[in-house]
Amino acid sequence: MTTRSMKLRSLLFSFKNLKFFSMDYLLKHGYFDFKYSKQYEEDYILSNFVYKKIFNTEQLAKAFYEIEKKVNFKSFIDTTPIELSIYKNEIERRTYKLPNLYSYISLCKHLNKHSSTYLEIIAQNQQSLSKYSHSPFFIGKQKREENRFGKKHILKTDIQNFYPSVYTHSIPWVLVGKKEAKDNKRDKNLYYNELDSLIQRCQKGETHGLPTGSFATRLIAEVYMCKLDEIMKKFSYVRYVDDFEFSYNDESEKGEFFKELNLELNKLNLKIKAEKTQIDTFPFQGDNNSAFFFDYFLNIDNLDDQTKRIYNFIDSAIYKEREGYKGALKLMFKSLKSNVENTHISEESFTSHIFKQLFNLVLMTPHLSVYFLEFIEVLSEDAINNLLKRSLKHMVPQIQNNIDRYLELNYHQELYSLLSIFVFIGHYEVCSFDQLMKILCSMDDLSSILAFELIICIESNIDSVLFESIEKKLENSLCWEDELWLFKYHFFLRLNEDKRSKLHKEYKNFIYQKYDNGVEKSKFFNPKNLALINSPLILSTQNRNSDSDINTLFNQLLNNKVYFYEGKCRH
Fold first, then answer.
1. Residues 244 and 153: beta-carbon distance below 8 Å
2. DSSP bridge pairs for 498
3. Please, what sign has the CA dihedral across residues 564, 473, 409, 482?
4. Which has more pLDDT, 424 or 299?
5. In this predicted model, what pLDDT tens digit does every residue of 424-437 receive, in sequence order?
């Protein structure tokens, strides 16, 4: 490829991908990392860990330009992220860190301001496959295959614990070189030092690790790795985030690449994950054949035949996943959704046992929950009420046993995934009240919000015990920068949604009975009197303990009634 054509391709890539650095995209799609695709009419289609009709930031994106007029986003205060224990595989787990909204928006503003710098780095890169993650699948596939042409062997390796291991001070090193970065480390106005500082603020001042989970972090990781690729440019390889694939014929080629990669990673305080390094020899192991999944139900009209075919399809997908075809079960759910939508299979061909089988896959592998929800979204109310709900009732003992296990192990994704399904289909009796209260009292923001919603759906659950439990949960969260900021934001938002509701009335009764101190009820809720009470359940306590600008943001969000939870009680 000529230099001229490379420049033209780079410019075209930058033009097409400029939207990913826009504030609208980073706020609407980026926080929960929803993947946008033009081939769908919907604005966003899928996140790997939350379902779009339960949690999203769409209202934040709509309200932002009005909110921005009141908030300057120049506070240097460190904030506490939401930490989530996420399924990785049967042996390992990973920690997602969702930043406090103030820190996240500040980071997004930086990426937007310096988008041309970062886009140029990504656009000029020749090794990255991950930069095409929002492009049609075949583009990355073609690049991978072209890199293998004429080569007998493939070396596959990746960086050990990449996201948690990135030293934030190494970001300036990789962007402009270690010497220049160290010479200018005190100049906080330089874009690379600002980025370093903003990432630290997203994770309570931590200098080790990128706060995994958002699209903004993925952009930063991609820029970081593209700069590493520049150093390694003499080698011909492809890379997806931190996964490297080097094609070769001679062992000496492999040895030189491996040695050089190790050397450069060590300079950045990173290292190769030796136990995951693999050698593949031609003919190479292929990817999943998606045609198998999406053409499986063509020209089958008889309902009984369709039912048999669905049983066989599920067994085949499980077998493929077991044999090492990663993503086979995700493709299975996508195919079921597509074939129901396109009427290649009738929802009447799904039996109660099939629904049990599909839900059991989610119960055992929670990262499938979003794909399961995407599938049942296309089903009719009759199918959900008469088949799916009935099927889950027969699985209550297994579900509750697993919920107890997830509580004991402190597994967040498993819990909020299951609760998301129950909220979406309006199935409130699957979890026991005691289980919901345990989740509310001890789990992460997302699980706690869902448990809270499932509890208050039944008005008889709203009493002083509920508020006492929430106050205890928030005893170490007395400002907006603290932990559990999203849960308490949701609590205050729901509390003031309807002042005639039982939730609001019982809250006022609880606060008065606990803190009245002899003051008449008619005078007790005067703002001056409430300011004397130090309880995390009182909004003025949160406000006066918070940084001024951060406090302004959260009060603007409350005033504009910006929701991040979209689930509704369905009766």
1. no
2. none
3. positive
4. 424
5. 999 888 999 999 99
C-alpha–C-alpha distance, residues 285 and 495, integer Å: 55
- Separation between Cα atoms, residue 392 and residue 386, nearest integer Å: 11
Q: The tokens of 376 are what?
A: 């049942």
The enclosing H or E element of 427 equals none
**Torsional class of 324: left (φ above 0), alpha (ψ -120 to 50), beta (otherwise):** left
Secondary structure tally for the chain: helices H, strands E: 30, 6
Sequence-distant (≥ 6) Cβ neighbours of residue 85 within 8 angstroms: 93, 95, 410, 411, 412, 413, 444
Cβ–Cβ < 8 Å for 262, 273: no
Angle CA 36–38–40, to nearest 5: 85
Closest-CA residue to 88 (of 80, 96, 76) = 96
Distance separating alpha carbons of residues 327 and 466, to the nearest angstrom? 41
Predicted confidence (pLDDT) per residue in 92-132, tens digit: 889 999 999 999 999 999 999 999 999 999 999 999 999 88
User: Cα 284 to chain center, whole Å?
Assistant: 32
DSSP 287-324: PP-HHHHHSTTTT---HHHHHHHHHHHHHHHHHHHHTT
Query: Which DSSP letter does residue 526 get?
Result: S
Taking a C-beta distance cutoff of 8 angstroms, is the pair 346, 306 a contact?
yes
CA–CA gap between residue 530 and residue 512 (Å, rounded): 10
Name, in order, each residue with C-beta under 8 angstroms of 202's C-beta and a sequence gap of 6 or more: 79, 81, 97, 99, 100, 103, 104, 107, 211
Half-sphere exposure of residue 546: CA atoms within 13 angstroms, side-chain side: 26
Alpha helices for 410-520 (secondary structure H): 412-425, 433-442, 445-456, 464-473, 485-495, 502-515
| DSSP category for residue 569 | -
Residue 208: CB partners within 8 Å, gap ≥ 6?
164, 165, 166, 167, 168
